[in-house]
Write a structure and sequence with these properties.
The chain has eight helices and seven strands, in the order βαββαβαβααβαααβ. By secondary structure, it is α/β, with parallel strands linked by helices. It has a single domain, classed as NAD(P)-binding Rossmann-like Domain (Rossmann fold), CATH 3.40.50.720. Bound molecules: NADP nicotinamide-adenine-dinucleotide phosphate.
Length: about 240
């Protein structure tokens, strides 16, 4: 469901789609593009999007919803930039991980983004840019997150292939954050949070704006495709 009263943007504005713009990293990504004067269509699941962002209710696990999203975006013209910043965790040791813990994480973090990119491939402008948010866990692994790290590692393999298939049409890259101060990070217990902080060479977690700035920069870069850019306080060097 679209929100009303879209913000006024300059004629030079690009059409930017941000999946998962209701909170956390995606909300700051959406606000960052809006602050640069672009028209931002941000998705949420009922809780709305930041000021200056056109909200669209969307669940990435619903296969039928992707066409509706791009049809809504098409009302403003072709998409120039697509960012997928949605994601979930359902952590537990593997032997206790339920089928739904596995299915929901793979559906949300891997299958959904694949469907979004497949739709975007025919809707994005020539020279457009797609940025997916993965995690350092894809490379490092993380105890209790077998489902999550598998989903993010899958995303990275997917991007390496899509980048080659569509190199002459659009760029597609990944930004891989380390621990970042959002609801997802805060949901980890105090002990786990302290361990993540101490385990990061910079001895602190990232702020959403520090990830959003890199997403913005990656989306603007002109000769990079198929890359994974870690933003992790030194966890990945
Ligand atoms: N925070 C970290 O420490 C960290 C580290 C590495 C990677 N990441 C990655 O960064 C990305 C953003 O995470 P975050 O920390 O900003 O998380 P967050 O604060 O928990 O926000 C998650 C976002 O994803 C959306 N979302 C969840 N399930 C969805 C679905 N089925 N359909 C559409 N949207 C859905 C949420 O929408 P609702 O508001 O409707 O729930 C929300 O906008 C994720 O891909 C995450 O894996 C985060």
């Amino acid at each position: 469901m679209p929100s009303t009263n879209p913000p006024v943007v300059p004629d030079s504005a690009k059409n930017v789609v941000v999946i998962g713009a209701s909170r956390g990293i995606g909300a700051v990504v959406a606000s960052t593009f809006a602050s640069h004067g672009h028209r931002v269509i941000g998705t949420h699941r009922g809780s709305g999007t930041p000021d200056g962002v056109i909200g669209f209710e969307f669940d990435i696990t619903d296969p039928g919803a992707v066409a509706g999203l791009f049809s809504f975006v098409g009302g403003f013209g072709r998409a120039d930039v697509v960012v997928v910043a949605s994601g979930i965790t359902r952590d537990s040791p593997l032997v206790r991980m339920s089928d739904s813990d596995i299915d929901e994480v793979i559906a949300t973090n891997l299958v959904g983004p694949m469907r979004v990119v497949r739709a975007a491939a025919s809707k994005i402008v020539r020279g457009g840019s797609i940025v997916l948010v993965s995690s350092v866990g894809a490379r490092l692994g993380h105890v209790g997150q077998a489902n999550y790290t598998a989903s993010k590692a899958g995303l990275e393999g997917f991007v390496r292939t899509v980048a080659q298939e569509f190199a002459s049409k659009f760029r597609i890259n990944i930004v891989a954050p380390g621990p970042t101060r959002t609801d997802m990070f805060l949901a980890a217990g105090a002990e786990a949070r302290a361990a993540m902080e101490q385990g990061t060479p910079m001895r602190r977690v990232g702020e959403p704006v520090e990830i959003a700035d890199v997403v913005y920069w990656v989306s603007q870069s002109t000769y990079m495709t198929g890359a994974t850019v870690p933003v992790s306080g030194g966890l990945i060097v």
